[in-house]
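HUMAN: Spend a minute on the protein record below and explain its fold to me.
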Amino acid sequence: MVCVTEDTFGNTVNPLTKKEVPIRRFTITNDRRMSMQLITYGATITSLKIPDSHGMVDDIALGFDNIEGYLTANNPYIGCTVGRVCSRVANGSFILDGKKYEVTKNFLGKHMLHGGQHGFSKVIWEVDCVRPDGVVFKFTSPDGHEGFPGEVVATATYTITEDNCMRFCLEATTNKPTPVNMTNHAYFNLAGHNAGKQGMAEHIVKIKADCITDMDEETVPNGEIISLDNHLLDLRKLTNVGEGLRKIAGIAKGYDHNYVLKYTPGCIEKQAKAFHPPSGRCMEISSNQPCMHFYTAHNMPDLEKTPQPMINGKGHSLYEKHGSFCMETHWYPDAVNHENFPSIILNPGEKYQHVCIFRFGVYDPSCERRGSGFCD
């Protein structure tokens, strides 16, 4: 049985209305001791607790203890729903139907990152409804929001199941042609949110992708596609994250790449897996999206030598470089500026829909050998 309860998570000023509002928090639990917490600020996952192979429950999602943590300037989009367009928009501009649109340049002063200064991750979402198994958030993005054309009505539905799956469904409609490409930006560590780089290095991952999209030195896509055959970034076979990071150190600061998935339009397919052998926790990701950005948090502070401000997470934890990972499913990044990428333009009368399922359980090696799955 799944149960949903509600409380508050403090107050903050709505950046669009400039009025102070309470932040609502929802806790979703099931009988197998899985629980997830979400807040209306950014439709954000603040906690995700999962039992391990010994029955011990731990929080595997990075987050903050209060709303003030999410408002800090160095919050790297932890747990939030990202849009109207996730990832980069090169040079903060694109051409649509012969007209050039200039959008917010909040990355390096020249590109858009994750929807702009007050994108979907940094606004207050309404609660459209509370379901028996989760909650539906709603946000109306006005025409001209962060420079994008058209009014977009977006919903973000987050649920859990009785068999320890977390599911989100991101949907949107518009009254004018406009780009839409949403995702969730949760950071995970299956050893526990505060296990740091030591716990992270113990993870094993696999992503069903034959290629990646190339990018320039500013991590902006350049439109090229790179085959992963005989490539250090190939994750089609089970790969230890710690060993992988050491191998790619000469070509990258960490995994921060958009993997082009094996993809069947209209289908929800298993696309990636991660597990942590010491705890036995595993995670299997399925979606209806063609890409996944795999990121191992190299931009977080290096606790041994960084001059960066610390990221003070839940329970006085310090979140660090290579201490967590994101697996963000979505459409091709910066697709508005590359004709060879599938279009992300949403038109009136159409519905954008992004479904992603995270299945959690205990790793069973025999399942992998049989090809029947990753978790029990």
